[in-house]
Amino acid sequence: MENSFRRLGPIYREFLGSQSTVNIMLPMDTSELFRSEGLHPRRMTLQPWATHRETRGHSKGVFLKNGTEWRADRLLLNKEVMLASAVRRFLPLLDEVAQDFCRSLRQRVETEGVGERGQRRMTLDPSPDLFRFALEASCHVLYGERIGLFSSSPSEESERFIWAVERMLATTPPLLYLPPRLLHHLRAPLWTQHATAWDHIFSHAETRIQRGYQRQQAGASGGSGGRFQGVLGQLMDAGQLSLELIRANITELMAGGVDTTAVPLQFALFELARNPDVQERVRAQVLSSWQQASGNAQKALQGAPLLKGTVKETLRLYPVGITVQRYPVRDIILQNYHVPAGTLVQVCLYPLGRSHEVFESPARFEPSRWADPEVGSGGRLGPEVGSGGGFRSLAFGFGSRQCVGRRIAENEMQLLLLHILRNFRLTVSSTEDLNTKYTLILQPESPPTITFTTLAH
Question: Where are the alpha helices (DSSP H) in 318-433?
């Protein structure tokens, strides 16, 4: 993508299989696209996922829906996962998981690491632990229950779930340009792998939803003591979505909430480790904010804007999904080209994040560039970007169709980084750039190895 923009300029048309797209990257063009998305924004349907639901008789969640049906469900979900009141409810659950993760990692470094007491160090690939953290955090927020993944022997069921999500993500891209119905009919091995992975994901979610339902029934008679019952409990209590639609949406949130936070956390730890000056600046802010907040996680995050900047900066360089797509509902003009209504337009995030036109020193990892939401210290809101300044950070999409799990993911990543920086100094043996690969998400070709050195509390 980056090479195509370099060669062809800020807009080009691409044909992939039967799919034709117009690709853009400049914020001013995204701004124009956003204004033409309409009341029911539509993006490219992941047909293999939709075909799985149709052939298995499952309902679709908001990720796979469009039109008025999408809007009605999305507004109900927003109340439980996007509004500030919802964040206040689930933030303590995320904080508990993040603190437990760091406690268990610290214990491991202190018993198995080398060096003197108070400064023990250990070099490891944190990716398996980060996947377990993301699954534990998702379950805690969605179901209101812990699944105990930080014990020395995590459950087979959870390991199988992580495997299933990875299989599902890896088999999606090749299926995007093939007719899934035909592959289903032919029982093609690729389709069978994809469908089996989804079946695992659904059965894992089903077990937890059934447990949540039983807890809610018991709570209805005995009361839950005012404790937050997780997003599942909130949706059941509200009674506005059918159980079938709750199941569809909770399953999508589960499947979409593990790799998409675990992988950016690998990149974030690597960038902090290879930029020690940045790491020290973020840590100083974290320690001071944590102290002033007296252990209140929400206050601590508000007092440490560099944590938010670290997440935005990580996603600028390593966007999880590499495009945001829309079908404009009216004809628009982009870069002097007439784009008819109904054309699939993709905003390409990887080249956007690394563009010299949009960012000053784009190769530099600099969380403080996001300090001012409009410009940022490393922003370039000159004539080349025009009115699109708000469209430089698009990892979670934009508008009413942005990622429904956004608030959970942002807070989950910030809280984990907060507690890691309180407990450890991070270093890497090589500061070489990481090679990346693309399944349905961007990830490191091989996960970075990081040295964790304990800090005195």
Answer: 349-353, 406-423
Distance of alpha carbon 238 from alpha carbon 81, whole angstroms: 13
Report the number of secondary-structure helices (H) and strands (E) in the chain.
17, 11
CA–CA separation, 319 vs 340, rounded Å? 28
What are the distances in angstroms from CA 259 to CA 82, 161, 200?
20, 11, 16
Nearest to 271 by CA among 320, 319, 322, 317: 317
Lookup: tokens for 160 = 């199988």
**C-alpha to C-alpha distance for 307 and 295, rounded to whole angstroms:** 16
| Cα distance between residue 385 and residue 194, in whole Å | 41
Place of tokens 């979505």: 241
| Per-residue pLDDT reduced to its tens digit, 17-43 | 778 999 999 999 999 999 999 999 999
Query: Identity (one letter) of the amino acid at 418?
Result: L
453 φ/ψ angles, rounded to the nearest 5 degrees? -115, 125
How many Cβ atoms are within 10 Å of 62's Cβ, its own excluded?
23
Nearest of 246, 245, 255, 149 to residue 201 by alpha carbon: 255
User: d(Cα 106, Cα 129) in Å, to the nearest integer?
Assistant: 13
Query: Using CA atoms, how far apart are residues 103 and 358, in angstroms rounded to an integer?
Result: 40
**What residues does 437 pair with on adjacent strands?**
443
As given in the structure block, the two tokens for residue 282 are 């973020």
- Classify 70 as helix, strand or coil: helix
Give the phi and the psi of residue 370 in degrees, each rounded to 5: -100, 10
Burial class (CB in 10 A: 0-12, 13-18, 19+), 304: buried
Our CA angle for 348, 309, 150, nearest 5°, is 95
Percent of the chain predicted with pLDDT > 70: 94
DSSP 270-304: HHHHH-HHHHHHHHHHHHHHHHHHTT-HHHHHHT-
Distance CA 385, CA 393 (A): 13
Specify which residues 332 forms β-bridges with: 339
Weakest mean pLDDT among 232-236, 277-281, 331-335: 232-236
157-163 long-range contacts (CB < 8 A, ≥24 apart) are 157/204, 157/207, 158/132, 160/200, 160/204, 161/135, 161/200, 161/201, 161/204, 161/258, 162/131, 162/132, 162/135, 162/258, 163/200
Residue with structure tokens 């690597």? 270
**Burial classification of residue 18, based on how many CB atoms lie within 10 Å of its CB (0-12 exposed, 13-18 middle, 19 or more buried):** exposed
The span from the CA of 352 to the CA of 321, in Å, is 13
pTM score of the predicted model:
0.93
